[in-house]
């Protein structure tokens, strides 16, 4: 496709939203055109999230035009909608470093800009956070501070959003919730809420008349806050009867406006201006198109959620030849799940809004009645899986490691407590790269390790992943956690016979006499290269043990290590506080062994964004860092 040449005459004049607010409202469509083209050209060269931010260009411009940011608070939900926000708030010159190591952050963060009001890497938290800001402003007497929550891209399916709505309906506040309804999360939105939002209609003329009448009645002293709520409930009842449809938001005493065209920036600015001083909680419902203004992204917004590099003029994605490379771990999972499901009729698949990202789409395409996308609802995904398992099915529930944090109680209460046979597959475990600290899956080993009844495993390679999946669905295995990283494996010939791996049994990959290296998961392949290098450069004899299971531990193997070695190095792609290395230390202490144990992993801090290789180097987890630690042991 051919994109229009853009001079950026208006965008070049905008450094902050204050500059934007100096323009006439008639100039806003041109600002949107230039901003959209700037995002297209920037993301074409420096890959990142794409379609979601194109869909919010007009909303972003209108918000910063009408509201006095940063004093007024805009709380974004799922920050991949906010590239336009970054460009308009002083980061246009730095936007070429977006997601790069030491560059600007992948999602809005208060640590980066005063315009970024809250962390927003995960979905559905905007309403709760914004409500908290509203209450804080009231407590501090900041009656002129307005707060806006922008939620969308499927985030309304998250339970936290409804918890926030429920509280907003009963807590004094003037919060504005903007529902960016684009019929999408990353894949197409699912569930009843999607269909409800699509069908919801309300008269704008009715809302405008009601707003004007309420202001008149307040000034006359006829209407107070308590009477206003009662009147809203009565009016909502009449409107529901007339429309033969109940409005869920107004049923909660939250004023509803819309739906309106989210790409008509002048009308959107007018509506925002008209309702921004309205008292009480309110919701503005927008219809937008994900990928708006870039035809390929409009046609296939799922693919263009994060498309990689592409030609901004033709829309052609620049794809590297990967035919000679090992497969992605997620694709091995997807192919193996289909293979297992053909053999085991009890197997079903569950994912919270990530069927393409985790390759659950392979089962959906092959056996659509046995795969379930539950929307952005990780806690529900876990409990839903537990319910199916209780009645005899064998769920494979695939949730990104960092998103699994949101389902922690559900795993404990609804799966582990009853020892239900749910296989929890944690994709994107470990350091994930450019998405940064909100997405690094580094905590799961530490937070799952104390939970009774869980089996926790991580495969060294693709063969091990397939065999662990096969093992997990065998009878009487109980809840089974399998974690694996983002990206490619190490084996071109990745298909192998599906064989059982004895639960709780590790293996010695290489013998040695000076140092024992204990690894868990695919990072063991990096450790193997470091061992070979250290032996060659330092003349060491190093044994390498693949633990395989964090829980239960292979005690026989750990006794062997404790008896034979005075120097032990543990390597894991997770936090060292409470992780695999801690488990080894605890075992040695509990059994009277006193070796020198050095742990390599993610330190006790949030790790920034960058390529996985850059972050491994930062944390001393790459070949060089592991080799250095082995050499340090040799010099002692």
TrEMBL record:
Cofactor binding description: Binds 1 thiamine pyrophosphate per subunit. Binds 1 Mg(2+) ion per subunit.
GO molecular function terms listed in the Swiss-Prot or TrEMBL record: 1-deoxy-D-xylulose-5-phosphate synthase activity; magnesium ion binding; thiamine pyrophosphate binding
Domain Transketolase-like pyrimidine-binding: from-to ranges: 327-492
E.C. number: 2.2.1.7
Cross-referenced SUPFAM superfamilies: Thiamin diphosphate-binding fold (THDP-binding) (SSF52518), TK C-terminal domain-like (SSF52922)
Pfam families xref list: DXP_synthase_N (PF13292), Transket_pyr (PF02779), Transketolase_C (PF02780)
Binding annotation for Mg(2+): 153, 182
InterPro entries: Dxylulose-5-P_synthase (IPR005477), THDP-binding (IPR029061), Transketo_C/PFOR_II (IPR009014), Transketolase-like_Pyr-bd (IPR005475), Transketolase_BS (IPR020826), Transketolase_C (IPR033248)
Alphabetic keyword roster: Isoprene biosynthesis, Magnesium, Metal-binding, Thiamine biosynthesis, Thiamine pyrophosphate, Transferase
Cofactor(s) recorded in Swiss-Prot or TrEMBL: thiamine diphosphate; Mg(2+)
Keyword Electron transport tagged: no
One cellular component term from this protein's GO annotations in UniProt: cytosol
Superkingdom of origin: Bacteria
Reaction(s) catalysed by this chain's protein: D-glyceraldehyde 3-phosphate + pyruvate + H(+) = 1-deoxy-D-xylulose 5-phosphate + CO2
Entry binding sites for thiamine diphosphate: 80, 121-123, 154-155, 182, 294, 378
GO BP annotations, alphabetical order: isopentenyl diphosphate biosynthetic process, methylerythritol 4-phosphate pathway; terpenoid biosynthetic process; thiamine biosynthetic process
Pathway the protein acts in: Metabolic intermediate biosynthesis; 1-deoxy-D-xylulose 5-phosphate biosynthesis; 1-deoxy-D-xylulose 5-phosphate from D-glyceraldehyde 3-phosphate and pyruvate: step 1/1
Database matches in HAMAP family: DXP_synth
Subunit structure: Homodimer.
Family: Belongs to the transketolase family. DXPS subfamily.
Physiological role: Catalyzes the acyloin condensation reaction between C atoms 2 and 3 of pyruvate and glyceraldehyde 3-phosphate to yield 1-deoxy-D-xylulose-5-phosphate (DXP).
Protein name: 1-deoxy-D-xylulose-5-phosphate synthase
Organism expressing this protein natively: Caecibacteroides pullorum
Gene symbol of the encoding locus: dxs
């Amino acid at each position: 496709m051919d994109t229009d040449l853009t001079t950026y005459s208006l965008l070049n004049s905008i450094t902050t939203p204050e500059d934007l607010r100096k323009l006439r409202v008639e100039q806003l469509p041109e600002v949107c055109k230039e901003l959209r083209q700037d995002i297209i050209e920037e993301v074409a060269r420096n890959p990142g999230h794409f379609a979601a931010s194109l869909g919010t260009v007009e909303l972003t411009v209108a918000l910063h035009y009408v509201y006095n940011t940063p004093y007024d608070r805009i709380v974004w939900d799922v920050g991949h909608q906010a590239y336009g926000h970054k460009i308009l708030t002083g980061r246009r010159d730095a936007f070429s470093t977006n997601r790069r190591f030491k560059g600007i952050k992948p999602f809005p963060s208060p640590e980066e800009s005063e315009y970024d009001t809250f962390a927003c890497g995960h979905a559905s938290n905007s309403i709760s956070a914004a409500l908290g800001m509203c209450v804080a402003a009231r407590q501090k007497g900041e009656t002129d501070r307005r707060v806006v929550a922008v939620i969308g891209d499927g985030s309304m399916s998250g339970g936290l959003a409804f918890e926030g709505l429920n509280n907003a309906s009963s807590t004094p506040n003037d919060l504005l919730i903007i529902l960016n309804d684009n019929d999408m999360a990353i894949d197409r939105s699912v569930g009843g809420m999607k269909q409800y939002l699509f069908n919801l209609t309300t008269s704008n003329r009715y809302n405008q008349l009601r707003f004007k009448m309420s202001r008149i009645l307040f000034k006359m002293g006829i209407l107070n806050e308590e009477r206003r709520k009662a009147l809203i409930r009565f009016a909502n009842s009449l409107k529901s009867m007339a429309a033969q449809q109940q409005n869920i938001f107004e049923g909660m005493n939250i004023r509803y406006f819309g739906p309106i065209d989210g790409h008509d920036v002048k009308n959107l600015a007018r509506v925002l201006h008209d309702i921004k001083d309205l008292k009480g909680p309110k919701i503005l419902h927008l219809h937008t198109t994900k990928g708006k203004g870039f035809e390929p992204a409009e046609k296939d917004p799922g693919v263009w959620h994060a498309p990689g590099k592409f030609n901004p003029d033709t829309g052609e994605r620049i794809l590297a030849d990967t035919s000679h490379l090992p497969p992605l771990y997620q694709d091995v999972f997807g192919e193996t799940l289909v293979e297992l499901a053909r053999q085991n009729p009890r197997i079903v698949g569950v994912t919270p809004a990530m069927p393409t990202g985790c390759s659950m789409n392979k089962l959906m395409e092959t056996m659509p009645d046995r795969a379930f996308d539950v929307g952005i609802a990780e806690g529900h995904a876990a409990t839903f899986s537990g319910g199916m398992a209780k009645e005899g099915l064998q769920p494979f529930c695939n949730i990104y490691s960092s998103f699994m944090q949101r389902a922690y109680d559900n795993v404990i209460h609804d799966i582990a407590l009853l020892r239900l046979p749910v296989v929890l597959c944690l994709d994107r475990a470990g350091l994930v790269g450019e998405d940064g600290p909100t997405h690094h899956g580094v905590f799961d080993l530490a937070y799952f390790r104390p939970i009774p009844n869980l089996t926790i495993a991580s495969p060294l390679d693709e063969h091990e992943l397939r065999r662990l999946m096969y093992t997990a669905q065998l009878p009487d295995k109980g809840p089974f956690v399998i974690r694996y990283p983002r990206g490619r494996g190490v084996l071109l010939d990745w298909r192998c016979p599906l064989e059982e791996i004895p639960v709780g049994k590790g293996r010695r990959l290489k013998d040695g006499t000076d140092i024992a290296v204990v690894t868990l998961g695919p990072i063991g392949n990096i450790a193997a290269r470091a061992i070979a290098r250290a032996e060659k450069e330092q003349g060491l004899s190093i044994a390498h043990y693949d633990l395989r299971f964090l829980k239960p531990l292979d005690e026989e193997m750990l006794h062997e290590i404790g008896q034979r070695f005075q120097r032990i190095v543990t390597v894991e792609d997770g936090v060292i506080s409470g992780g695999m290395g801690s488990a080894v230390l605890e075992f040695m202490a509990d059994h009277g062994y006193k070796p020198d144990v050095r742990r390599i992993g993610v330190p006790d801090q949030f790790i920034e964004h960058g390529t996985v290789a850059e972050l491994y180097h930062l944390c001393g987890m790459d070949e060089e860092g592991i080799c250095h630690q082995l050499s340090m042991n040799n010099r002692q």
